[in-house]
Write a structure and sequence with these properties.
- The structure holds two protein chains of two kinds.
- By secondary structure, chain A is an alpha/beta fold.
- Chain A is built from ten helices and ten strands.
- Chain B has eleven helices and two strands.
- In chain B, strands 1-2 form a two-stranded antiparallel ribbon.
- The chains are: A alpha/beta, B mainly alpha.
Chain lengths: 235, 299
Amino acid sequence: MSLLEMEGVSGGYGPVQVLHGIDLAVDLGHVAVVLGANGAGKTTTLRAISGMISVTGDIRLDGRSIVGKPPEAVSKLGIAHVPQGRGTFTELTVDENMRIGAINRHDREIDADLDRWYEVFPRLGERRRQQAGSMSGGEQQMLALARAMMSRPRLLLLDEPSLGLAPLVTRELFARLGDLNREEGLSVLVVEQNASLALDIGHWGYVLEAGHIAVQNSAHELHDDEAVRKAYLGF
Amino acid sequence: MQLFVEQVLNGVGNGVVYGLVALALVIIFRTTGVLNFAQGEMALFSTYISWKLTTTGMPVVAAIAISMAISFIAGAAIERTLIRPVESARSPLNVVIVTLGLFLGLNSLVQLIFGTDPQTMPSIFPAGSIELFSTNGDAAVIQKQTIGLILVLLAECLVLWFLLQRTRLGLKLRAVAADPDSARLHGIRAGSMLMFGWALSAALGALAGSLVAAERTGFDASLMQTILVYALAAAALGGFDSLWGAVICGLLVGVADALTIQYIDALDGIEVVLPLALILVVLVVMPNGLFGKRTVERV
């Protein structure tokens, strides 16, 4: 059974319907990639999952419906959503940002996790007492990833992590994401414009067009499918 | 010299009050990003509750504690029923207008319920004064009340600092203030936090109002109006988001005011010009105040 399943999900913002019956699944331990042009509904798909917009249809985590739950409840079920713009708490320190990631955990391993992620992302460790908003875009994206990991998520939703980042930084980010998936078994649903990089670490890919899934296939085959590449992905 | 010291101490006595109200303003501002113009009148209402309870023979400390508890709940209710429905990211002015409406409404309600006659509020502090020093037979004294108020102010500031900087609840409050959407995605119930901010601030206002009223020989519905102006000046001077800034600047404004009254005859009777001028100068010259955090943001 898949970790996350979307079935006939439609919805949008007020009278504007953006999603027209999305069917999508993320398997446990897999990276699913959602590709598509601007305005195809990629961000809205993630917002539907985390409860930021109201939708019709069904969204299930572990077979249990999560439709209609507010974002704070969805988060507590183990879905960490890193939104576009990274959701940095700019006035707070890096350390406080990380602790917010673990705000609903009540175990004794929070400090150990902190140390661990500072080891994985040394730049964050060096700047733990700094105001998070003073860091570069790339560092803030790393912070967003580390902060999400502090919640020990079952599923990570990533919205356009490469937005505004230099190519080299983007490459490093996806390398880290790939590591997390392989080493931690982290399940990921990532929305991305940079199709090639995302498909490299992905297992399954979806191409979204005008609010519905136009094409889906294994990441490997999507990457090599010239017709799809020309029609939708532009590389 | 003796006159100068006495005026400074007078100023400190008033300044403590401004600091207490400024702290309540800062708490709402830090947790919700709103400047609550009704803060003074909410405190006024609470003060009347404290006073009413003392008239039943209840000990003053108990009366203030109960009034703070009632205000805590009322503050939460105000946020839920009046503030939240009009809140919108597109026009933050909505909330400001509602707080202005609350300001007028609560003041009238107080006069309607409790009447317009001046009342006296008993003090929790002992009366009398302590001699600091004397020169040529002239003694500079400090009121025991003033010392008590300073202790309350320091204690309150410490408790708030601890709450905001050292507890999980404080981190949640600050997360919601910084970015409510992102906070919700981290599993924090933003609505509850905003409600708590209003509740806490209303309770602090109740404490401030009850202590101020006891300092005066008598109080009526106008008790908090000039105090709010001075407290706003203190909060602006302190940068709106700094607890210690609010306290220190409250004292500063109080002392500056006392010295103005003593030494600048031209402002006789219109001393309230001073805090207004301070607000203006601070907003023009240093929008972040003396103690406000300068927000650095990169994208």
